[in-house]
Structures are given as C-alpha cells and as structure tokens.
Amino acid sequence: MPNFMEIAFQEAEKAAKRGEVPVGAVLVSASGEVLAQAGNETEAAHDPTAHAEMLVIRAAAKKAGSARLGECDLYVTLEPCAMCAAAISFARLRRVTFAAYDLKGGAVEHGPRFFTQPTCHHAPEIVGGVEEQRAASLLKNFFEERR
Amino acid sequence: MPNFMEIAFQEAEKAAKRGEVPVGAVLVSASGEVLAQAGNETEAAHDPTAHAEMLVIRAAAKKAGSARLGECDLYVTLEPCAMCAAAISFARLRRVTFAAYDLKGGAVEHGPRFFTQPTCHHAPEIVGGVEEQRAASLLKNFFEERR
After folding, report:
1. Inter-axis angle of helices A52-64 and A82-90, to 10 degrees?
2. What does each C-alpha distance from B74 to A12, B49, B98 come to in angstroms?
3. Is B110 touching A (CB cutoff 8 A)?
4. Residue-wise pLDDT tens digits, A66-89
C-alpha cells in the first residue's frame, strides 16, 4: 500500500511553491487506488471553496459519476474546516486521516465539531494527528516567510 | 430594486423540474447587480458540493477575480448548511437572507450555528424566514412527489 499521506504532503508542498496555503489531500478508493490528489487553490482559482479536500471530492465524484463516494478514504495534511467536513459527510466518505490539528479553523476536533452535530447525517471514521509535526512546520514556515 | 428572493425562487423551481432538491440562490453586488444565480445541481453534476450557494459564490468570485466578495449579499431559499455557511464566511459576504429554516441540516440557526463559533472569522448579517412558507411548500411538495 502506498503512503497516501506522503502524496498529500507532496501536494501541500507544491501548493506552498504556488503561494497557496500549504494543504494537500488525496482521495483513495476501497481498493487503494488514488482517485484524485490536489493542493489548495483558493488564490490561483479565485475560489474561496477551492480547499484541497473539496477539489479531490469534486474530482473523484465526477470520475465516479456519483455524488456519493461511500467506500473512499481521504488523507489531508490539515484538520478539515466546516465547509470540508460537511462536504465529506455529503460524499459519505468512509475514513478521514489528517495530519495537523487546526485550532483556529478546524471543525472536526475544534469549533463546531461537525461530525458530532445532530444535523450531521454521516460521520466518517477519524484518524487525527498523523505526522502532525511535519504538517504544522510546513504551515508555520509558510506564514513566517510571508510576514 | 428587483426582488432578489423571487429570482432565487425561480432558480429553486427550475431545480425541482430537473429533479434536484429545490433550492435556489442569487448573489448580488453592493450596487444591486445580480452577479450570479443558480439552483442546486448536486445530482446532474455528480457533485456533493454543488449546492446553489456554492455555485453562486464560485461564479461570482471567478467573475470578480477575487476569492473575497466583501460587499456582496446572498439570497437563498433555504437556511445554509455548514458547508455553505463556511464558504459564505470565507467569501466575506455582507448579508445572507434566507427563506425556509432547515431543522435537519441548517447550520445558521441549527446544529453547529456556524457563525457563532469561535473558529468562524467572519459572520455576515443574517435575515431568516423571508417567504418561509413558500420555500417550505416547494420542498415539501418535491419530496412528497418522490415518495
């Protein structure tokens, strides 16, 4: 099995080089096939919804010809925000593995804790904090260079 | 000033005719220009993120060449979900006017009440319940016909 989080990190690093907040994501099928991989594109695309998670969900759903991706797993370098958490729920993803925790904008372990809400109709399995330090350093360096 | 909610209703009605959950949205500039209008497209586009609100935000941001739409107002026939509420916050919209309350999936007055969370960094002015009965009937009829 490939290291899917490594692919997500490569996408995050590519995003940083483009001047985007360095977050990367990969969507993987039940059989371990990479369906989509992407880095954050909000600046280049002039699209406030173009988070890495949204891009891979949209691409994989288009490829699958279905808005639901029931057996698929997401790997992402940062704890998803409320927008992405709700999209993950709508897409019925099976598992979400993320690296850094996002105290300021995360919506899985912070803020709205979306998947615990009574208005959340599907909650994936969650694995948080995988290679947390690497992802946190990537973000910290990015913002420090821009000060 | 045109009746922007009426345009949102027309989009919702068109969505229903396409077999989509009938929700429509309009994004309006500070000067009252309609920047984008859309109905829900999740089924036809095979895109779990293709809620009416997301479509108009994405289209208007692309048109404006900016991920931020600071002086713009959104009119939508249903209380936004967490995904759309977070996107509204990222786009820095000025005001959100919605028709029906969504007890099952809404994230403005229900569930996560996203705009009240400490992890929400911009909250628009909110006007809820405008022509609530009309929007609720549209949704009720749509789901009854599909039983």
Report:
1. 20
2. 32, 17, 8
3. yes
4. 999 999 999 999 999 999 999 999
First to last CA, chain A: 39
Mutate to test the interface with B, among A21, A40, A43, A46 (most CBs of B within 10 A): A46
Which chain B positions have a beta carbon within 8 Å of A83's beta carbon? 82-84, 86-87, 90
Q: What is the pLDDT of residue B147?
A: 77
Instruction: Place A101 in a pLDDT band, splitting at 50, 70 and 90.
Output: very high
Q: Which residues of A19-28 are buried (b: 16+ CB within 10 A; e: fewer)?
A: ebbbbbbbbb
Residues A127, A95 contacting (CB under 8 angstroms): yes
Cβ distance B15 to B52 under 8 Å? yes
pLDDT tens for A3-38 read: 999 999 999 999 999 999 999 999 999 999 999 999
pLDDT at residue A1 greater than cutoff 70: no
List the single residue in A with minimal CA-CA distance to B85. Answer: A83
Residues of B in contact with A43 (CB under 8 A): 67
Residue recorded with tokens 């916050």: B89
Mutation for A interface: B46, B66, B102, most A CBs within 10 A: B46
Interface membership of A101 toward B (CB under 8 Å): no
Report pLDDT digits (tens) over B9-65.
Answer: 999 999 999 999 999 999 999 999 999 999 999 999 999 999 999 999 999 999 999
Indicate the residue of B48, B90, B106 with minimum beta-carbon distance to A87: B48
Q: B34-39 and A34-39: which strand pairing? A: unpaired
Q: Which of A39, A49, A32, A28 is nearest to A96 (CA)?
A: A28
Which candidate, A49, A124, A74, A117, places its Cα nearest to that of B117? A117
- The structure's pTM equals 0.97
